[in-house]
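dumping this here so i dont lose it
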């Protein structure tokens, strides 16, 4: 929004020309979201406490977590508000990718809000049914996938791009694109949600992955850079950079209050929405496989649950002491902060590997 005012004002003050630069607006988007969360964080926590929006703790989880009972949840509303305001202020609102990303984020956030609300009001740690959640997520993902494909101005959406391979692009058409997009958006949404089980465990990896995708977005939206690095050129993808930076700033601001011991939890309203947002960014940029690398922590968390449930149904035995996998390491004697920081380190390494695919082809 501000770019339009700056474009008018630069006729009188040339310094306003800086608003035309994606890098400037990306930095400002991150700072805006960060400062918004730091400013409204204490107020949000007080209001959630007054509303008795305490997190019910699952009885079948680690017993050390019972002390967290009553900690305010639904803090993801702060994150989503910061992302939305920052994006609207610093992005070009004529860019259709901006509206697709905001739509996916807010509609998936609405599902998470309803899920958290049921947990808080009815003191039910299970929230909404898995069937209801899947129908909602599927609807959002499919609408987003069709919108991205049919609004595209590039044939990049008819191929799947493999990282580390310069000319290994596999054509697969509209049906393949829709299926891959669906799996990416829904899978990322649920994977981040499963990861959000310890203080700060999900927030910082989301920052790291969003930051990595921001670099891909900047390169993909620049014709010269995209051609040099043999990436598909996505016209308008530079605005996705700003959205990713807004995610980084909002999650960093939230982490200030979510670091152990957490004053507030993200809740499904934040985790489901952030995961879906990352998945949609990857789809827009044609970097679904890179998301799988950089978000390897989220993938591992999701696979640990799938493997645990599948194996237990078949053999009545468990692969892990407890799933998701972060609870397994807690059961093995790791302190919660050890699990969190070590998983952060792993994510840093994975993001660097993903970024290396920009050049190593």
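and the seq i came up w/
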């Amino acid at each position: 929004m501000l770019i339009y005012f700056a474009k008018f004002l630069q006729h009188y003050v040339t310094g306003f020309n800086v608003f035309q630069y994606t890098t400037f607006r990306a930095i400002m988007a991150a700072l805006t979201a960060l400062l918004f969360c730091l400013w409204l964080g204490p107020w949000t926590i007080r209001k959630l406490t007054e509303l008795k929006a305490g997190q019910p703790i699952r009885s079948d989880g680690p017993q050390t977590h019972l002390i967290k009972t009553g900690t305010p949840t639904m803090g993801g509303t702060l994150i989503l508000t910061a992302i939305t305001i920052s994006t609207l202020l610093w992005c070009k609102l004529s860019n259709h990718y901006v509206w697709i990303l905001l739509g996916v984020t807010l509609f998936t956030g609405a599902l998470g809000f309803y899920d958290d609300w049921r947990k808080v009001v009815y003191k039910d740690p299970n929230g909404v049914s898995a069937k209801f959640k899947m129908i909602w997520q599927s609807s959002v993902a499919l609408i987003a996938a069709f919108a991205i494909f049919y609004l595209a101005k590039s044939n990049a959406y008819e191929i799947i791009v493999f990282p580390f391979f310069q000319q290994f692009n596999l054509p697969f058409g509209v049906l393949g694109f829709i299926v891959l997009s669906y799996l990416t958006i829904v899978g990322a949404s649920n994977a981040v949600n499963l990861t959000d089980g310890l203080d700060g465990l999900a927030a910082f990896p989301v920052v790291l992955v969003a930051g990595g995708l921001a670099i891909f977005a900047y390169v993909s939206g620049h014709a010269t850079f995209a051609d040099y690095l043999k990436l598909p050129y996505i016209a308008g993808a530079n605005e996705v950079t700003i959205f990713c930076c807004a995610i980084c700033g909002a999650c960093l601001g939230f982490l200030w209050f979510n670091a152990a011991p957490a004053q507030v939890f993200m809740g499904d309203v934040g985790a489901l929405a952030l995961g879906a947002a990352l998945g949609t960014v990857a789809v827009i940029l044609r970097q679904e496989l890179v998301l799988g690398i950089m978000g390897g922590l989220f993938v591992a968390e999701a696979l640990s649950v799938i493997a645990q449930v599948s194996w237990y149904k078949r053999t009545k035995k468990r692969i892990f002491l407890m799933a998701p996998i972060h609870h397994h390491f807690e059961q093995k004697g790791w302190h919660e902060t050890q699990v969190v920081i070590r998983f952060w380190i792993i994510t840093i390494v994975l993001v660097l590997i993903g970024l290396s695919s920009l050049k190593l082809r």
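The mean pLDDT is 91.
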